Amino acid sequence: MSAIVLLVVGVLAFLTGVLIYSRFIAGKVFKLDPEFVTPAHEFRDGVDYVPTNKHVLFGHHFTSVAGAAPIVGPAIAVIWGWLPAFLWVVFGTVFAGAVHDFAALWISNRHKGRSIGTLTESILGKRARVLFLLIIFFLLLMVNAVFAVIIANLFMANPGAVMPVWGSLVVALIVGFLIYRTGAGILIPSLGALATLYVMIWFGQDVPLALPDFIGFGPTEAQLAAAGGDASVAAEAARADGQRVGWIVILFAYTFIASVLPVWLLLQPRDYVNGHQLFVALAIIGAGVIVVNPEVVAPAVNSALPVGDPSWFPLLFITIACGAISGFHGLVGSGTSSKQLSRETDARYVGYGGAIGEGTLAVTSIIACTAGFAIYLSRDVGAVQGLALWQQHYGSFEAATSGATAAFVNGVGVLASGIGIPESVAVIFASVVVISFAATTLDTAIRLQRYIIAELGVEYNIKPVQNRWIATAIAVVSCGLLALGLDRGAGGMRIWPLFGTTNQLLAGLTLLIVSLYLMRQKRPFWVTMIPMTFLLFMTTWAMIINLQRFAGTNQTMLLVLGAAIFVLEIWLLFEGAAAIKRVRAGATGLAPEPAPDEGT
């Protein structure tokens, strides 16, 4: 089947969601009010609460929630075939993910920019709020650990991406200064920054950068065994460990600085530029699909999985989190985006539209990994052997997980070369796209984790952790230890199934909070209740399967983390059931929705 069919069907489905379903939700369910005084105006402080142009805010929100996950998740999930992955991305985005993101942004905006974790106390009670905050902490811990490992691996595999990625941060700082200190418009500086980035990408292939071997690891017994006793091969694997550890340490040092800076200085301008970059990437991939017209060689449903590999049902729904629905988006929407919303009516564009953009990225990832990557593998060996190589690359769930970014990057390289872009440059471009979005999520997530740690400090009256510097340091150190704790970072991607499960659990609980609020307001709560029920059922089932797998493979760290999260989940589900009963009886502690002119 032609990849063009997937692209057209996906885009048409997303347009239908934007033009019809999101308009219904905005007008009949959330009842957006253009006169409502948003928290960005009410609490304006120039650091976190900053009224922001909706296009700039879209760039921040879009790139913060996109990250690497809508690329990596689908790139892994196609091991089960392209059809389950494609259907979940399309229907999950339109009816669950985009609704979730829109809802989290809106309910936070209606309650003075309070985070979903804080709102939990009003709806489920004080005990549930602490449980919710702990789940959020675990999720952010895994988000940051996984994304740091992904970035480190991409730096090592594509050293030509190092200069443009770090150079773009300097350019973003300059853009932020120009916009917010000199009053310059944002469009021209951001386009100039984008052009500068592409110049650096072009030269990146000639200026590959790698870390010096300043971390001298010796080979492990596992590396010696994998190398068949060849000491030189094992030493090379140990050297790669040192490179990875070095990059992870540098990345977390960067996130410490980035997460305490004012949002206008780095976060907003860099995200706005990355928003442009994402649209360019989607245009290049889309044009490449139309020109190259590649065939989707992967099976629609893969019935030849190796013995012992997990079935797509229910694990598909946690493997593809971002790109369909993701609890992390609710943290961004209620954590940073709601504090920058200038007009309430912008929430539809930023929340629902941002998720649709991410779903589009997920569709292109499916195409790149099932069509473009197959061409990459078959060029020198023929289509039949190329398909065999594709099946070998996706020979097991573990192989699919470790090779996900390689499949996407090389697949995009092939598609981009079809429209005249040199493949070597296109590979660096694709790497920069993944790294840029992952880095955006990384420092946004560290900022959010600082908020969570500070909230827990207030809850338990621990004054030192209420300090933003100390809270940020705790966040950075804990995430770094998790990233490095699995085979010197080499096993970091093993966290992915647990990350996906926790992510979807949080999305379901966020939809629960919104559903209870809509029930109280006597509005159509089925919009959020139906996806909530589906998601919590699938997440609970998937968590049980993962815990069994972690126990069977002696992955003690993941087993302990997963068990703790599972206990919190069950506890919160009981709290939610009790809250639904209270709401139906007409008793809840949630404050009434403020009038449109409240706060003026």
Short description:
With 600 residues, the chain is mostly helical.
- Number of folding domains? 1
Give the structural class.
Answer: mainly alpha
- Using DSSP, what is the number of strands? 0
Determine the mean pLDDT: 86
Query: What Rg is obtained from the alpha carbons, in whole angstroms?
Result: 23 Å
Helix content: over 70%
**Poorly predicted runs:** 594-600
Intertermini distance? 57 Å
Could you explain the architecture of this structure?
- With 600 residues, this protein is an all-alpha fold.
- It has one domain.
- Helix 1 runs antiparallel to helix 15, helix 5 packs across helix 22 and helix 8 packs across helix 12.
- It is globular, with a radius of gyration of 23 Å.
Main attributes?
single chain; 600 residues; mainly alpha; 23 helices; globular; disordered C terminus
Helices and strands in order:
Elements: H1 3-29, H2 39-42, H3 54-66, H4 69-77, H5 82-109, H6 116-124, H7 126-157, H8 162-182, H9 187-204, H10 221-226, H11 231-260, H12 267-292, H13 312-319, H14 327-335, H15 346-378, H16 383-393, H17 397-402, H18 404-417, H19 423-459, H20 468-484, H21 496-520, H22 526-552, H23 556-584
Helix pairs in contact: 1-5, 1-15, 3-12, 3-15, 3-19, 4-15, 4-18, 5-14, 5-15, 5-21, 5-22, 6-7, 6-21, 7-11, 7-19, 7-20, 7-21, 7-23, 8-9, 8-12, 9-12, 9-19, 11-19, 11-20, 12-15, 12-18, 12-19, 13-21, 13-22, 14-21, 15-16, 15-18, 18-19, 19-20, 21-22, 21-23, 22-23
